Structure formats: C-alpha cells, structure tokens
UniProtKB/TrEMBL annotation:
Specifically catalyzes the decarboxylation of meso-diaminopimelate (meso-DAP) to L-lysine. GO terms for molecular function: diaminopimelate decarboxylase activity; pyridoxal phosphate binding. Its cofactor is pyridoxal 5'-phosphate. Residues 33-371 form the Orn/DAP/Arg decarboxylase 2 C-terminal domain. It catalyses: meso-2,6-diaminopimelate + H(+) = L-lysine + CO2. SUPFAM superfamilies: Alanine racemase C-terminal domain-like, PLP-binding barrel. Belongs to the Orn/Lys/Arg decarboxylase class-II family. LysA subfamily. This is Diaminopimelate decarboxylase. The active site is at residue 344. Transmembrane segments: none annotated.
Length: 419
C-alpha cells in the first residue's frame, strides 16, 4: 500500500498534487511519501513484536538524509555499507548504537572512522577483515562488536545480479567454515563476537529461501553456543520483495515474514536485527517525468520522456519492470508504447510494448515503485544533472535534494594550469 492515489482524476502524493510539484521543481523528479515510509517501517516493527528486535533500514536503497531522518526518528536503526552511508545516517541523527556496518570491502579508514564514531556491530565477511578490525580496535583501545556473515548456499530465486546467498557469490563465509572462523574471531584481542549475520539477496518473492537460510542459522547458533561463543543477536539481512506490478500476485507480507522468523528462530532467545531496504522505500517513491515527444517508428510508437537510464537504471540494469502511469488519469490503456529516455543508448528503454493511456507531448507520467535503488543509483551520464528529490508530508512538500544547475555541474571539473 502507498499514498499515491488519484483524486478526481489527478495523481496526488498524500495531499499534494504531483503536477504542482512538477511545476515547482521541474522534471524529472523523485517524490517520496513520508506516510508510506513510516507505514512500511511500522509493518516490520509490528511483524517482530514480542521478540527483542531492531529494524535497520538498508541505507543503500535510499540514502537521502531526510528519508533517513524520517525513519530514524521512529527508532529505526541503519544498515550501512560505506563510511559515506554511515556519515549520512549520523547526519540524520541516528546514533552509532543503532548503525550496523555491512559489506565485503571495508577499508581501514572506514573501520577506524566508524569505531571512533560509535558502531553497533560490524558484519564481517572474511578472516582478513576480522584481523584488520581487531588490529585497528586494539590500536584505539576499543573492542569491536562483530557478527560474521555466513553464506548459507541457498538459492534466493531472484535476479542473478542481486542474489547473494549462493556459494559462488562473493558474500559471506561458507557456513561450513563458520566454526573455524568464529574460533579465529574469539582468539583476536580487539573483537567481541555478538552474533551471526546472513543476507541472501534482494527482491525475494517467496519465504522458502529465507526459511531455509534461517533454519541453517538456527542450527549454527546452537553449535557456536556449545563452543562457548556469545550469540545474542541474529542479523537476518533484508531482501523481502515488493509488488512492482499492481496486477500481479503479491510477495509475502512483512507480517508473514515475521511469523516465519518467530517460527524458525523464536526459541533461541536472541535479539533479531533485520535490514529491509526495498520494502520500506520502494513503493514510497515515484519518479515523475514529462513526455518530450511521441515518435512514430516503423512498427512501434516511442514515448520519449525526460527521465532516462541515468535517473533510474533498474530497467537497463536488471530488466526491471516499473508501472508507468499518467499523472492526469485519463482514458483506458489503449495505446502501445515503447517508453524511452533521451540518453544515447538503446539500453535507455524503460518499457517495451506497454499499453498505456494515449499521451501527448508535455504531459506527465509517473514511474511507480521508484523509491528504492532509484535516486541512489542515478548518475550524470550524458551530462544530465542529478535528478532532484522531494519529500511530501501531508499537505506540505520540500525539496530534499535540489537539482544542480549546469554551472554547478561543470564547475566541479577543473582545468590544470598546464593545459
Ligand atoms: C542490499 C542489502 C540489504 C537490503 O536489501 P533489500 O532487498 O533492499 O531489502 C540488506 N542487507 C544487506 C547486507 C544488503 O546488501
């Protein structure tokens, strides 16, 4: 459920007309709904009720500081994968005790900065990383709280580029080696083992792979405890999928996910951490774009819009589907379009053979489900300035990242004195 609905045939974001925002800010523009962000966080928080837990928003899905503050003010933790994301979470007012640091390639600088700034836990992915964290913590006279990310060798049945839990993926340590790695961790002076971490992929539409992974984690918990390790937290990662097509069967709900977590892990007396990104932010965002031209091809009709692959790369990168709807709700979807952007690549195609309402140059469309892995993956390819972001809350809206001017974009380059 989201808060983007038609009122008298006009698309609204909560109580604000999307066309009004487009007029004020220009297009393309990302629009996020505070109410949807809050609702999705609350669904996860409620789903784990009765178990000690922390819902850590996966910052990589949407790292705008205003979005992070919206969630952080509700008590959300943050899952970060770089010191840049860590500093964004801090800028949003989230304390270090609620920030977990994931990722396979944390640099020494990143480890040092986050240890000094305060960190809830490092999700560690290799023995060399354990060694580095221990060394740096010892230098600083600190003890680093650590969970080791295990790779359970489970097929997440999702797009290959976002599956992370198979043995051939670069993530985690093989679960078969977990005992040895935990023994190594326990031998290091700067490390305190606090739990186990797992994350098997993104956009999962079935609970079965999660269940398989969590059963393995439950077994491992008992094994590691028997060997004397303190396993007081289980970080279960993110990955629950969202319905990108309104007309399709929906993925499991957070409540169903929560019930499965309780079933597989509820007996272990642990604090549960989860790291949802897409499910919290995905359907809380639209990308709004204006039609530049309608172009008649040989055997197809192109809808050329002013958003492009540099603004929303998911269709080009993952063959992802986004529903594209008119901002002025009009006629039945009677016209078939290829929806494309202006970038000089054939990959700059958002949809092929899409039945839509008849649209004219100058009219607005909205890409649904664009709040996660949208603006964060935007670039300036083709020297298109970074797409702006707007946050709506009730009847008010604010630009939370302005569109840079061409001058600002160009002024970042410098010409050497010898040129
Ligand atoms: C990407 C990622 C997430 C978030 O995944 P979603 O599918 O957006 O919920 C959580 N944890 C880790 C370690 C990740 O890499």
């Amino acid at each position: 459920m989201d808060h983007f609905n038609y009122r008298d045939g006009v698309l609204f974001a909560e109580d604000v007309s999307v066309a009004d925002i487009a007029r004020a800010v220009g297009t393309p523009v990302y629009i996020y709904s505070t109410a949807t962000l809050k609702r999705h966080f609350q669904l996860f928080d409620d789903a784990l009720a009765g178990m000690p837990h922390l819902v850590c928003f996966a910052v990589k899905a949407n790292s705008n500081v205003a979005v992070l503050k919206t969630l952080g003010d509700l008590g959300a933790g943050m899952d970060v994968v770089s010191v840049g994301e860590y500093l964004r979470a801090k800028a949003a007012g989230v304390p270090g005790e609620r920030i977990v640091f994931s990722g396979i390639g944390k640099t020494r600088e990143e480890i040092r900065t986050t240890l000094l700034g305060g960190i809830r836990q490092f999700n560690v992915e290799s023995e060399p990383e354990l060694q580095a964290i221990s060394d740096i913590a010892s230098e600083l006279g600190l003890i680093a709280p650590v969970a080791v990310r295990v790779n359970p060798d489970v097929d997440a049945h999702t797009h290959a580029k976002i599956a992370t839990g198979k043995s051939e993926n670069k993530f985690g340590i093989p679960i078969s080696r977990a005992q040895a790695v935990y023994a190594f961790a326990a031998s290091l002076p700067g490390i305190q083992v606090v739990g186990i971490d797992v994350h098997i992929g993104s956009q999962l539409t079935d609970l079965a792979p999660f269940r398989a992974a969590y059963q393995k984690v439950a077994e491992l918990t008992e094994v590691l405890r028997a060997e004397g390790h303190t396993i007081s937290r289980l970080d279960l990662g993110g990955g629950l999928g969202i319905p990108y097509r309104r007309d399709n069967s929906a993925p499991p709900l957070p409540s169903e996910y929560g019930a499965m977590v309780r079933e597989t892990l509820g007996h272990l007396d642990v604090e549960i951490e989860i790291e949802p990104g897409r499910l919290i932010a995905g359907n809380a965002g639209l990308l709004v774009s204006r039609v530049i031209y309608v172009k008649e091809g040989e055997d197809r009709r192109f809808l050329i819009v002013d958003a492009a692959m540099n603004d929303l790369i998911r269709p080009a990168m993952y063959e992802a589907h986004h529903d594209i709807i008119p901002v002025d709700e009009s006629l039945a979807p009677s016209t078939v379009y290829d929806v494309v952007g202006p970038v000089c690549e054939t990959g700059d195609t958002f949809a092929r053979g899409r039945a839509m309402a008849p649209l004219n140059a100058g009219e607005l469309v909205a890409f649904r489900s664009a709040g996660a892995y949208g603006a964060v993956m935007a670039s300036e390819y083709n020297s298109r300035p970074l797409v702006p972001e707007v946050l709506v809350n009730g009847d008010q809206f604010a630009v939370i990242r302005p569109r840079p001017s061409y001058e600002e974009m160009i002024a970042r380059d410098t010409i050497p004195a010898w040129l």
